[in-house]
Amino acid sequence: MAKTSLDAHVSVDDAWPLLQELSTWEGVAEIEDLRNATHDSKGNLTGFDFKFDTALGRVNGTAEVTAKKPAMQIRGSQKGLDISIDVVLRSPNPSSVPTTIMVDVSARATKFFTRPVAITLNSLLNSAIDEEAQKIADRLS
């Protein structure tokens, strides 16, 4: 798991709607071509389709999203590889600035033959977690 946190000049109230947009997530943890977003009755993102390049080739997957302000969890599983992205927004008051953005990204093999891919991806994520978190923070500010 790769974890980090940073402060962003945005309130939780202003950041939350942006977390519901696919453009905020494009490229985070190497997922791309996000499409077919689904939302619940409150407008919270509940899922989307994506593509992901691995050593085994391009993977098409579906992500499930659990969102309850101020936390969002994205889970995608495909071809023996689980990807998770957790984002939590923290602030003493939902309308105050700054907001601390905590990001946790990981990959896990669910099959023996995908273990090297998960190890490689986790290594990449560990070395790039600050960049991944900054991508999210920049898109929320």
SSE blueprint:
Layout: E1 2-8, H1 12-19, H2 22-25, E2 31-39, E3 45-54, E4 57-68, E5 71-78, E6 81-90, E7 99-109, H3 115-140
Antiparallel strand pairs: 1-7, 2-3, 3-4, 4-5, 5-6, 6-7
Report on the architecture of this protein:
This protein has 3 helices and 7 strands. With 141 residues, it is α+β, with helices and mostly antiparallel strands. It is globular, with a radius of gyration of 15 Å. The mean pLDDT is 89.
The number of helical elements comes to 3
- Low-confidence segments: none
Sheet-strand content, in percent, reads over 45%
Strand arrangement within the widest β-sheet reads: 1-7-6-5-4-3-2
Would you tell me the overall average pLDDT? 89
Structural class: alpha+beta
Note the main attributes of this structure:
141 residues; alpha+beta; Alpha-D-Glucose-1,6-Bisphosphate, Chain A, domain 4; seven-stranded antiparallel beta sheet; globular
Give a brief outline of the structure.
With 141 residues, the protein is of the alpha+beta class. Helices cover 27% and strands 48% of the residues. It has 3 helices and 7 strands.
